UniProtKB/TrEMBL annotation:
Keyword Oxidoreductase part of the UniProt annotation: yes
Gene Ontology MF terms: disulfide oxidoreductase activity; hydroperoxide reductase activity; peroxiredoxin activity
Keywords, alphabetical: Antioxidant, Disulfide bond, Oxidoreductase, Peroxidase, Redox-active center
Family indicated by similarity: Belongs to the AhpD family.
Protein name: Alkyl hydroperoxide reductase AhpD
Location of the active site: C132, C135
One Pfam family in the UniProt entry: CMD
Biological function: Antioxidant protein with alkyl hydroperoxidase activity. Required for the reduction of the AhpC active site cysteine residues and for the regeneration of the AhpC enzyme activity.
Subunit-level organization: Homotrimer.
Source species: Streptomyces qinzhouensis
S-S pairs: C132-C135
UniProt cross-references to InterPro entries, sorted A to Z: AhpD (IPR004674), AhpD-like (IPR029032), AhpD_core (IPR004675), CMD-like (IPR003779)
Protein origin, superkingdom: Bacteria
Name of the gene: ahpD
Length: 178
């Protein structure tokens, strides 16, 4: 199971996705290996594509420390909750919801077990997949205040966009073939 296996599964009509997958993961020199593979794992989980997760998880696990592996999974888990909550709060026309206490446990954000910047990058990437503008803004601001440049932030959501698109394409193909 590998990146090459995943790329070979991408149909010809989606050749751009195959090329982008190779460049954002296979030839990425903008992120540290931990940032890269944590982003890959977190977005593979967020993509909800069993095919993508099955192919990318083994390499991510091999590239990450056990702490980083668990933190990337935790970013996907906590953002699955937060993205729904904060996106809904933002989309409701009644601004009073924004004044209410969230009342949701989010301890992992304060103590993720890895560098805070890496966890924020993974949270931002998952928020991109899940389409939560409020979470995207929040995580981007934390990253920028920590000195992370825009190119690095963009790299995380480039990975998210490609992983999501590959998952959508392969799941659609599997449904059409089945």
């Amino acid at each position: 199971m590998s990146l090459d296996t995943l790329k070979s599964a991408v149909p010809d009509y989606a050749k751009d996705l195959k090329l982008n997958l190779g460049s954002v993961i296979g030839n990425n020199d903008k992120l540290t290996p931990q940032q890269l593979w944590g982003t890959v794992l977190a977005t593979a989980i967020a993509s909800r594509s069993p095919i993508v997760l099955r192919e990318l998880e083994p390499e991510a696990k091999a590239q990450l420390s056990p702490e980083a592996y668990n933190a990337a999974k935790a970013a996907a888990a906590i953002m699955a909750m937060n993205n729904v909550f904060y996106r809904t709060r933002h989309l409701l026309s009644d601004p009073e919801y924004g004044t209410l206490r969230a009342g949701l446990r989010m301890n992992v954000i304060g103590n993720p077990g890895v560098e805070k910047v890496d966890f924020e990058l993974w949270s931002l990437a998952v928020s991109a997949v899940n389409g939560c503008g409020q979470c995207l803004d929040s995580h981007e601001q934390v990253l920028r205040k920590a000195g992370v440049d825009r190119e690095t932030v963009q790299e995380a959501f480039k990975i998210a966009s490609v992983v999501q698109a590959v998952g959508t394409t392969l799941e659609s193909e599997a449904a059409l073939a089945g």
